[in-house]
Amino acid sequence: MHEELAAVLAQWPDEQKTVVAGREFCVGHWHGHEVVAVLSRIGKVAAATTATTLIERFGVTRMVFTGVAGGLAPHVHVGDVVVAREFIQHDMDASPLFPRHEIPLTGMTRFPADAALSDALAIAAPVALQALVASLPRTAWLDLDLAAARVHQGLIASGDRFVSKTSESQSLQAELPDALAVEMECAAMAQVCHDYGVPLAAVRTISDRADDAAHVDFPRFIQTIASRYSVAVLDYLLAALPSARLTSTSRAYGSTTSAPRR
Ligand code: ADE
Q1: Catalytic site residue 195?
Q2: Domain 67-241 coded CATH 3.40.50.1580
Q3: Which of 18, 33, 81, 184 lies at a C-alpha separation of 20 to 30 Å from 171?
Q4: pLDDT higher than 50, residue 260
Q5: For residues 70 and 163, is the Cβ–Cβ distance under 8 A?
Q6: How do 81-89 and 110-112 pair as beta strands?
Q7: Which string of b and e fits 183-211 if b means at least 16 CB within 10 Å?
């Protein structure tokens, strides 16, 4: 989301913008890291193009995605945070040539998130959540008990659909019982990062329950919570990471981070 990216850029002492493939890549520094921030755009192809450009043109060595997602598992609520440990493309189906969900010619149905980067995110996420809860005005989200928000870790499912029907959410849950959340980008970025051997981690704030109320919850959540959360989690992550260079990407309503490669 643009507000999310603007909030990230406000933390940088310097920044240089370069347009590639119609995307504005912002190169700068944050907590001593050389970073590139960009909106990933929405959907798997857009995210794959953004990830490829980050690697090929900006030489990033690590990538972190921040953004929002719909909660799938029953215990994943609006306001919770999910740190990805694995990614799957829930709409991939080349059967009967390949098993359901398998990415053809890779032999893989799931791509792992980078363990070290995800561990660092899993430490930064609850700290950022606490700071966010403390900083929000009480009226920011009248019916959401953010103080009860939790950080989950596990499988994120990506597909080229905004899931806004309870029936669709239920069939996704039946198909992928361990999927915590659904969104539209990360598994595609994970496939690109796997191809290039670039570590990827992702953190998603839950903006809706991917059900019949998803279209109502979504814009409201973006405006009040998501952009503040992304900045906070990246700030803690980069402050804690040993000196290496990171970046920040986002879709129209998400934000990602990665690092230039020498
Ligand atoms: N991102 C946030 N909420 C989503 C949903 N319900 N479906 C797909 N992507 C999302």
Answers
A1: no
A2: yes
A3: 81
A4: no
A5: yes
A6: antiparallel
A7: bbbbbbbbbbbbebebbbbbbbbbbbbbb
Among 180, 207, 250, residue to substitute to test ligand 1 (most atoms within 8 Å of Cβ): 207
Ligand 1, residues at Cβ distance < 6 Å: 68-70, 162-164, 182-184, 207-208, 210, 214, 218
Q: Is the pLDDT of residue 223 over 90?
A: no
Residues 152 and 53 sit within 8 Å (Cβ to Cβ)? no
**H/E segment holding residue 257:** strand 255-260
Residue 165, C-beta contacts closer than 8 angstroms, at least 6 positions apart: 211, 212
Helix, strand, coil percent content, the chain, rounded in steps of 5: 35, 30, 35
- Minimum-distance ligand 1 atom for the alpha carbon of 208: 3
pLDDT digits (tens, 9 = 90+) for 17-66: 999 999 999 999 999 999 999 999 999 999 999 999 999 999 999 999 99
Centroid of chain to Cα 138: 26
Selecting among 183, 185, 208, 235, the annotated active-site residue is 208
Looking at the chain, the whole-number percentage of residues with pLDDT higher than 70 is 89
Catalytic, 208? Answer yes
Give tens-digit pLDDT for 8-27: 999 898 899 999 999 999 99
For CA atoms 41, 43, 44, 45, the dihedral sign is negative
Distance (angstroms) between ligand 1 centre and the Cα of 114 equals 23
Which atom of ligand 1 has the smallest separation from the CA of 159? 8
CB-based contacts of 157: which residues, under 8 Å, 6+ apart? Answer: 72, 87, 88, 89, 90, 172, 176, 179, 181, 182, 183, 187
Predicted TM-score (pTM) of this structure: 0.90
Residue 250 reports pLDDT greater than 70: no
